[in-house]
Amino acid sequence: VPSGSYIVSVASPLHVFEPVRVDINAKGKTRARKVNFIQPGEVVTMKYPLNFETHGIPNYFQKREVYRLTDVIMNPMFLTLLVPLALLLILPKLASQDPEMQRDLQQASNFLQPNMNTPDIGDMFANIFGGPKKQKPTQSQNNGASGGISTAQQKRKIEAAKRRN
């Protein structure tokens, strides 16, 4: 064997062995030491004949993870589903117990209801960006086959309005 540094490692499918570095100088003198990749300057010499000790059995497969309920509960997708669902179930029960809270919720829901006095955005954009103006259907068009109100029904409505006044 020519002079130099060699790493001797045993390949076995059933056991794991630690590699050994063998240095051979030009005079033929040999020195063996354990390979230390973390601290290469540290020298642990070994005697001849080299005795390789097993360090365990190789693990070729990863152990399958255990399916746990906490993994499902802590999943971000589950949490994003759980929070709104909890709010939908809990808040109405809390609001039904407190009359002041009911009043506040009623005011908030009234605020969200569309106001009939506000202009229609669609009509506003149509007026701004052009297009023909819509004509309101006349009374004779309503009475046709389109299912409009008959004249007898109109008379009854007018009489009912007069009685109310």
Radius of gyration (Å): 45 Å
Helix and strand succession? Answer: EEEEHHHHHH
Number of strands: 4
Name the structural class. Answer: alpha+beta
Largest sheet: 4 strands, antiparallel
**Strand percent estimate:** 5-15%
Describe this structure in words.
With 165 residues, the chain is of the alpha+beta class. Among the domains are: 4-46, no CATH class; 69-111, no CATH class. Helix content is 41%, strand content 10%. It is built from six helices and four strands, in the order ββββαααααα. The chain has helices at 69-73, 76-97, 99-112, 121-129, 139-142, 151-164; strands at 4-8, 20-24, 30-34, 45-46. The protein has a four-stranded antiparallel β-sheet, with no helix packed on it. Strand 2 (20-24) and strand 3 (30-34) form a beta hairpin. The longest helix has 22 residues, at 76-97. The mean pLDDT is 80. Residues 137-153 have a biased composition (Polar residues). It is a single-pass membrane protein. Its main location: membrane.
Put the structure in a nutshell.
This protein is α+β, with helices and mostly antiparallel strands.
List keywords for this structure.
EMC7; 165 residues; membrane; 4 strands; ER membrane protein complex subunit 7 beta-sandwich domain-containing protein; four-stranded antiparallel β-sheet; alpha+beta; transmembrane helix; signal
